Amino acid sequence: VVIISILSNSTLYPEGTVLIGLARDNENKKTKISARLAGRKGRNLREVLERVMQKTGGEFGGHHLAAGCNIDQEKESEFLSELKSHLELELVKI
Question: pTM of this prediction?
Answer without folding.
Answer: 0.84
